[in-house]
Amino acid sequence: MVEIKNLSKYYGRNLAVKGISFDIQDHEILGFLGPNGAGKSTTMNMIAGYLPSSNGTVTINGFDITEQASEAKKCIGYLPEIPPVYPDMRVEEYLLFVAGLKGVPRAERKKQVQSSMQRLHIEDMHRRLIRNLSKGYKQRVGFAQALLGDPKILILDEPTVGLDPTQVMEVRNLILELKQDHSIIFSSHILAEVSAVCERVVIINKGEIIAIDTIDNLERNLTADTVLHLTAEGDKDKISRLLKDIQGVSSVSDIKELGENRCSYQIELKNESVRNEIISVLLNNQCSIVEMHLAQLNLEQVFLKLIQEKKKSSLEQLIDETKQDNPYHQED
Questions:
Q1: 184 and 287 both lie in a single domain
Q2: Do 239 and 287 contact (CB within 8 A), yes or no?
Q3: pTM, whole model, 2 decimals?
Q4: Which residues constitute the domain of residue 56?
């Protein structure tokens, strides 16, 4: 198991990771999500012991990554965002070299290298110079080195970057297979991949955790709102205004023109009963309803909504702090 407690990282005066805490259970695939610059790679580098933390602790199978670095790192297989390969080495030569660095007994190195190459379908590349491989094959060589030493914890930072759809499916199936013997933290910008392989996700933004939960719970319980997909005929601006004025409608978004005076709308409702009011308002205003159905937020929508809510909260906090610091500010 992996335990992260109050982990922080400063770059000069800039606080890149702000006291985050979470854990990874045995045989769990944990998704780690966030926009560019959120602090994902910094966090994963600290968990792997590649980057020292400014504060906090990382415990890998009972070993502190700072105080007991050697023991902790033996438990970790790490694939960073840029695969750590040597372009002037051949694939098998490189993997044997990494096996030696990881302390794999000499008698077992060949067997482990063959096994990792087989799992990543790169056996036929074993004599190729790494510099001559495609980006996708370099990525798979990087993944193969992470499996050497049979680590209990796998840290995978964007493991499918550069792979074609068939290779992505192979890696996805491999990750699910590896769950039987490993705990996995899996970072990806492709939310469909996270949904396909992860039971639980941590969402980070600007160095802070904004959500930790199962994907089902996030999609179901992010808010009490219900998502309604509506297709209607009539003036787009008029329909949008009518919908926003209905009590119980939280938001109207993702408006798309479908042609012939027809548009689709995504509407968030406080409860399902608001549908009847929407039908009544639109029909009374000579707007035709073509289609209407309920849907839950998917992971991508949850992700975007959480980020937007965090930005709104931060802005409101900044405004409040500015008001408090302004001696001339008076409440209305």
A1: no
A2: yes
A3: 0.71
A4: 2-220
